[in-house]
Sequence to fold (259 residues):
Amino acid sequence: DAGIWQENSKIFRFIKSVERKGIEQASQIVVLTNRFRNYLTENNLKKSENIEVIPCCVDFSRIEQTSGKDEKNNRFELIYAGSTTGLYLLREMGLFFLELKKHKPDAFFRILTASPPDFVRETFKQLKISENDFTVTKVSPKEVPEYLKKAHLGISFRKPTFSQIAASPTKIPEYLACGLPVVSNYGIGDTDYLLESENVGVSVENFDQNDFEKAAKQILKLLEESGIAEKCVKTAIENFNLATVGRNGYQNIYRRLMK
Fold:
């Protein structure tokens, strides 16, 4: 799905056979999404009682230790944290930013990444995004929450390939835990369902201008709602807290194994 292996290559078919054997023989399986659990059960690959869904979680103690005040930056800031290559869609995120800027002329795009910054600059140059409207920065993991808290909106676009039904991007709960509504895209694990059901973000479907315009208007309207930051944090605590959701999920597995 990332374009590294060919689907019919020997290495791909070998790894898939090992994967299937592992699924068949395992007493318990951890998956990251309800969508992938449903895929396994619907295709008779595993019974639901042998599967535990544990999404990628957030260590809230790291966020609570963040130094400084939670004051927002002066410019309206869209932020992205993570890789800008592979399955991630940098160009599409840039196109959304351009649409957002039509409604928020002071919008600024901050990218926190260890990926080559020149790739980001060249991509945005092709999109005619001014150098004054974005920055590319590499920061340590412990610094990420501080940057997120000062932003206004988080974004994450990934290729909605087959494997992504099993994906749980950690950046999504990190954004929410810092009080940021999220712009994502359909087909990435349980993300679209979570954002819509909890009303803490919006999902883009087709990556065209109409969808970007619709999403920009929806997310800006959402940001006007009273208590939206608190709602985002509450959603993260209930669904992605390492100390409860993650721990309890593994305890459930160990209890079943001991029986």
